[in-house]
Structure prediction request, 349 residues.
Amino acid sequence: PYACMSLSETERIWYRDMERILGSFGSQKPLSKEGIAAGLNEESIDKIFQCVLNDHPELFYVDGYSYTKYSRGDMLTAVDFSGTYNVDLDAAVDRAQTIGLAAEQILAGIGMEASDYDKVKYVYDTLIRQTDYDLDAADNQNIYSVFVNHTSVCQGYAKATQYLLNRLGVECTLVLGTVETGEGHAWNLVKVDGEYYYVDTTWGDVSYQMEESALEEGDARDGAGRVVMPEINYDYLNVTTAELLRTHSIGDGVPMPVCTATQANYYVREGAYFSSYDEAQMAALFQAAIESGRRDVTIKCADRACYSEIIAGLIDGQEIFRYLSDEEGQIAYAQNEKQLSLTFWVTNE
Prediction:
């Protein structure tokens, strides 16, 4: 697991101990004296514990830990470790079965032979469609909130993404940090076709955007002035470190790679990444959306010059009507200034 591999060989001794203790609902179990002999002490516990939780979203019943240390003079001789749990053992077993069944139903929708990109997009789309962002959701720091209650916050979204992708054979780990408002946040690091990317399923859910008033900079209104949006935003599906850092800050708990690959970025893969206003590419993008039955299209721009050029053509020059018909309703749009993206859709609202 990714966080485990960030630890030293010595730290992994206690990692394996905690993994075993927490996985068996253990209490007052000794951490290996081998670790103590190698230099581990009580100051090592929190870092290693966080790595275990980062790697194991299935430990949904773990809230924290406690420990008892034994010393002879100034010398640490033993440490007993306990998990703190949010439910009792019987309830944890029942919930694990319920989570497993819900996950199996989701995973039945995609095969192991699918590409890494398709697996990541499928999990991203499915979790967003099945989950609503709710700060007051019960169990919102773990996967039970997503798979069973279908309401959660960022920790639940990110851990559920990790839980499913790991079962599909895609390397995925939890990332902790903050966002531009200073709030703590959780998202994922994934490996697609051998390259690392960031994925933020929470920020892909428009119910979160509405909750956080993330539409302030855009014009996401229909002809009657009402705010409406497609349910999925792809600005954070397989992005580089540079793109992520426009709005996120990565915590220093587990070292993260610098992600530079773009081949599996949603917009690049879907032909929606523009370096200039290419009318042929634009027509092909909208035509493909129409043929697939989609009523919304998002365009990603390589730089601000391209972004301004496309706004001038599609919005100011109203050329959007060349590509998207408004016969069935109003054409609405949203702008994301930070990610240089534009979303257009037809709404009947």
In short: Residues 13 and 34 are 8 Å apart (CA to CA). The first helix runs from residue 2 to 5. Confidence is low (pLDDT under 50) at residues 210-226.
